[in-house]
């Protein structure tokens, strides 16, 4: 392939950031060991019992997972039952202690 064609293809205005660079600079909002609670998503259907359980449950972040879809992922553990699950960053919020 012609180098001039590749140079034009890869050329960007000065100061412009490539999408993969801007995503790589983004960092997790939470840290391992942080106490969090689950936040319901709009349109999610849950039973009243499950909703009440999730509102009172406290989770601890056990692992930071890579960017997937539109946000970072976390592995969290229920502090009472010990059950673990994977959640997106927009599904959790810092727990008030």
Summarize the structure.
The chain is of the alpha+beta class and 97 residues long. It is 25% helix and 31% strand.
Q: Hey, roughly how much beta strand do the residues contain?
A: 25-35%
What do we call the CATH topology of the domain at 28-94? SH3 type barrels
Stretches where pLDDT is under 50 for at least 5 consecutive residues are none
Q: Tell how many strands the DSSP assignment holds.
A: 5
CATH class of the domain at 28-94: Mainly Beta
- How many separate helices? 3
Helix content: 10-25%
End-to-end separation in angstroms reads 61 Å
CATH architecture of the domain at 28-94: Roll
Major beta sheet, strand line-up: 4-3-2-1-5
Description:
The chain has 97 residues and is an alpha+beta fold. The chain has a domain at 28-94: SH3 type barrels. It has three helices and five strands. The longest helix has 9 residues, at 48-56.
Give structural attributes:
97 residues, alpha+beta, SH3 type barrels, 25% helix, 31% strand, globular
């Amino acid at each position: 392939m012609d180098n001039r064609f590749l140079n034009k293809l890869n050329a960007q205005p000065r100061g412009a950031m490539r999408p993969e660079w801007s995503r790589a600079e983004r960092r997790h909002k939470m840290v391992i060991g942080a106490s969090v609670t689950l936040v319901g998503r709009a349109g999610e259907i849950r039973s009243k019992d499950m909703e009440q359980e999730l509102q009172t449950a406290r989770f601890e972040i056990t692992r930071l997972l890579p960017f997937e879809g539109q946000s970072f992922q976390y592995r969290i553990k229920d502090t009472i039952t010990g059950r673990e699950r994977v959640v997106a960053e927009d599904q959790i919020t810092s727990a008030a202690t």
